[in-house]
Amino acid sequence: MVINSANLQGLRTTFSAAFNKAFQTTTTNKEKIATTVPSSTKLNTYGWLGDFPTMREWIGEREIKNLSEKDYNIMNKHYEMTIAVNRDDIEDDNLGLYTINMEQMGHSAREHQDIMVFVMLPRGFTEKCYDDLSFFHEAHAVGWKTYSNRGSAKLSAKSYAAAKATMAGYRNERGTAINIRPNLLVVPPHLEETGRYILTADYISGTTNPWKGSAELLVDANIANDEYPDNWFLLDTSKPLKPIIFQLRKATKFVSMVNENDSNVFNQNTYIYGADGRYNTGYSFWQLAYGSTGEIAG
Questions:
Q1: Is the pLDDT of residue 253 over 90?
Q2: For a designed S-S bond to 167, which of 82, 106, 180, 273 qualifies (C-beta 3.0 to 4.6 A apart)?
Q3: What is the pTM of this model?
Q4: What b/e sequence results for 98-136 when a residue is b if at least 16 CB atoms lie within 10 Å of its CB, and e otherwise?
Q5: Do residues 259 and 9 make contact, with C-beta atoms less than 8 angstroms apart?
Q6: What ranges do the domains of the chain cover?
Q7: According to the model, what pLDDT value does residue 51 have?
């Protein structure tokens, strides 16, 4: 290939198309557990996270809900990946592998968002949410009461039922039920059989299974971890705001450095193609999720 501006632009278009096609067609699950929140600044402050919002009878003046005393901030982070294409390969039309690499880059860029979202579940045993406690904690304060959304039992029909009952008991500061309805069970790959058994079996231990069809099963390898290898999670994803926040500052974009006077061309005899985006993840209402470390018999 003759290296000139027109051919370099055509090559950029080809690589960009390969990246964008893979980015758009890669299947992801983050939408099932995360709500995308647009961002226009370095960080977003979620002062409105606090008592779960519900309607009340209007008697007297309006009851104005104050924002949380402790603001919950999510700082955007910048992510990138870069591939160098040797100038000699362009001259020799040796580009097939590079096109595949651009497709893989698009796939990996989209998959990275999934990873970012799902690792928030096991991290929730230690990372804090808006009330300055770990997202999964035994004593989240609501008014004068405390509630737990953290367990330690291994996944079983019994522990699954206990988690559902715990979540159904959450109330707001006025003592009104907030109607949490868990509908998604998230497990690591080695617990898939157990999860399917709980949610699809007609009978468990010779008795009609009351939990058949009570939730959808989602298997994701990103929640597997060394500290709690048997952890599992029960989520309510039916609300407008899901348990995880995916904060998007700048969508992932294909970029390049292909001008003949760019330093990489002059010094390394390479053309640079890459992608970058700005985003981060955080937690919304802890009431929407229950996590068990799976350390003891269920």
A1: yes
A2: 180
A3: 0.87
A4: beebbbebbbebbbbbbbbbbbbbbbbbeeebbbebbbb
A5: no
A6: 5-49+69-296
A7: 60
